[in-house]
Amino acid sequence: KIFTYARDGAAAQGVAFNVANKTQLDAAVRTALDINPATGLSDGLADQRINWLRGDRTNEQTSTGGALRRRNSILGDIINSGPVYKQEADPNVQGDGYLAFVASKASRTATVYVGANDGMLHAFRASDGKELFAYMPRAVSTDVNKLTNPNYIHRPYVDGVPNVGEAQIGSTWKTVLASGMGGGAQGVFAIDVSDPTSFGTGNVMFEFTDQDDAD
Fold first, then answer.
1. pLDDT digits over 32-63, tens only?
2. End-to-end CA distance of the chain
3. What angle do CA 77, 80, 84 make, to 5 degrees?
């Protein structure tokens, strides 16, 4: 379950990051995924790069074939980001309807959130480390093809520490994760993690980057 953010068209929205939904990605993202980062030329491997980013290792470079970088681990390195644990709603927040929200989240699945330099913010179930979902910010998605370069030179992607807390959106209480990307991109993103076990495209809230304000 990997999601990203699309800015093309009239409405920005969350989209699933997979081959089946490739046409929903921004044109610039689709173009970048088709670019061989070693040559700067299109090589038609966008589908393979999407699957590689999703953890598929069948196209990794070996002595018998494969064009994409061979990894020691499908989880990227975590350097300047750090893990944030969240289960119950914050008992110190106040507001209309908040006590009912707290009660509804008392048994929520405990989750650890952390950014990584594989281009994603990851959500892991705290009890056993199972990944519940991942979010790839649009702000870094035009550069994730570089991760597949067999001669990859390290760079940051989602390299900021996330912040998770409760917020009232209109009249509805939600648990919101907001994060910058450190050296990966200039901007912030926010996602609704009120129920991390059922995260979907509708839980992608917004990104605000230097595309929105150059300053």
1. 999 999 999 999 999 999 999 999 999 999 86
2. 33
3. 90
